[in-house]
Amino acid sequence: xxxxxxxxxxxxxxxxxxxxxxxxxxxxxxxxxxxxxxxxxxxxxxxxxxxxxxxxxxxxxxxxxxxxxxxxxxxxxxxxxxxxxxxxxxxxxxxxxxxxxxxxxxxxxxxxxxxxxxxxxxxxxxxxxxxxxxxxxxxxxxxxxxxxxxxxxxxxxxxxxxxxxxxxxxxxxxxxxxxxxxxxxxxxx
Length: 189
Known about the structure:
- With 189 residues, this protein is of the alpha/beta class.
- It is 24% helix and 24% strand.
- The protein is built from 5 helices and 8 strands, in the order βαββαβαββαββα.
- Strands 3-4-2-5-1-6-7-8 form an 8-stranded mixed beta sheet, sandwiched between helices.
- Mean pLDDT is 88; it is low at 41-46 and 48-54.
């Protein structure tokens, strides 16, 4: 089973949704956090290391070694068997794909926090997290919102006015209802 959790902005509950799925759905799961850094940030070092804009270090994939307050650490704390942090420069996720796909193929079940991964894979289930009070709508979220199988609403009740209503015509869940939805989806597949 391959599940992707995405969302339209930062700090709206994507990692919490990952934790809810890990706690509430039978595993084992491997969990992945995908981060794309801005200009001048090296994927390996995590800051500007003068590596010619990432040409020397186009991506990094690190396995989390224990539960802590990082997103991948939270995945382990919620029950993930293994957790990974995938880092690339913005728009350069393709460089990490061969290694990432190897890891996903080895995973008994994979759970990925990312919108951009949808440019390269088709998951069994894609859940989009939405806080309608937050007007920031990332391009990657806008691009895939219509493909979501369900939307977990973490705040607000009125959808964004510039988003076609048909994109939002799908099950709307609360965070508490997410694990049951994922479990029922797994049974149907």
